[in-house]
Structure formats: C-alpha cells, structure tokens
Amino acid sequence: MPILSVNEHNFQQEVLQSELPTLVDLYADWCEPCKVLEPILAEIAQELSGKLKIVRVDVEKSPVLAQSFRVQSIPMLVLFDKGNPVDQVVGLVDKNALLALVKPVLPTNSSEISPKELSTLIAQGQAVAIDIREKSDYHRYHIPSAIHLEADAVAEQVNTMTASDGPTRVLYSRSTDQAKELSERLYSQGTRVSYLAGGFLGWEAEGLEIERGS
Fold this sequence. Notes:
Elements: E1 4-5, H1 11-16, E2 22-27, H2 32-47, E3 53-58, H3 63-68, E4 76-81, E5 84-90, H4 95-102, E6 111-113, H5 115-123, E7 127-131, H6 135-140, E8 141-142, E9 147-148, H7 154-161, E10 168-172, H8 177-188, E11 194-196, H9 199-205, E12 211-212
Parallel strand pairs: 1-3, 2-3, 6-11, 7-9, 7-10, 10-11
Antiparallel strand pairs: 2-4, 4-5, 8-12
C-alpha cells in the first residue's frame, strides 16, 4: 500500500474514518531526519500492506493539522486506531521501534482454532472444516463432515463455499504449518479463514471422532 499525502481536506476520510490502523507522519521538506525516516516508512508500508495505512502530513502546508497535533518537533508520528490516537513518538526512530509501536493495533493474520473448539463449532453447524492434505489421505480418514480441497485451489474455491459472514472456514493439514501459512496468505488477499492448531495430528491426539473413507 503506497504512502498517502494527507491534508486538512482529506484527513477525516483517510485517517479518522480509515478501516485500518493508520500511522500519521508529520514532516516538512526541509527536515533532514524526516528524509531519513521516509524510506523506512516506505518499507513498513510495503511489508504491512493491508494491515496498516501510513500517511504523511506536511506541517507547513497543513498548519491547522499541525496545530491540532501540537507539533513542536518533527518528525512526529501519531498512531490512530478506529479513528482515535493511541500512541505517538517524536524524533527519528529506527524500523524496529516503529514496528513495536504499531504491533498492538495490527489485525491478527488469521484465527487459530483448537481441535476441541472446532469439534464444538462443527456440531453446532458454525464451522466448515477444509482438508488440504493429499486426496488419498483425506479418503483414508478425515474430520467428520470435512470437505477436501487441493491446497493450490483453495484460494479460488473457498469463497464460493460459504459467505464470509457464514460458518467459520477452518483449514487443516497434517500438522499446523501448511494450513497456517495458507490461511495467512488468504487473509492478506482479503479472504478470512482460520486454521486448526496441531492439524489432523492434533485432532487425533485429542481422541476426537474421525471418519474413514470418502
């Protein structure tokens, strides 16, 4: 997500009404520390695209905004979440410090669901288990009522299965890693799915019911 230039005319829309947490960089063209900070912010904006919005406000071109922030020194970075300022830092800081600043408001990549929780959700009709193991493994045994999707086809098919506000869609593989990685990738693309902690091995370890055959 590119860094946006924000002024007094679009601040409310781009920051106060933003669906994403927003980091506001108050700067000026003559400010040398601001110039050092700019590429760091660009890196973070790219790495956290879809999770964090970063905007820049030129304090000389937007004096009313600068006054509202009570700017006394720049660069000044103010973190907004749900339209409210939640934290700030003044002066040149490194990338790690900025990542630590924004971490508390970043959305979770995906939801981890325990085997027992998934079992309860399935029984209540509130979850759909999606088996992304090899098809032969699925046909041998799987979580009751689970459907099988090839891992490379999940991105194309998962949204056609059920609406995003319907039953929770839970990916599972043999262990945790593959399903977690895939769920995080889908989340970054705008598809909300969860993953089963421990995978099918974790489900079996809990002594939960399994289905054999297809």
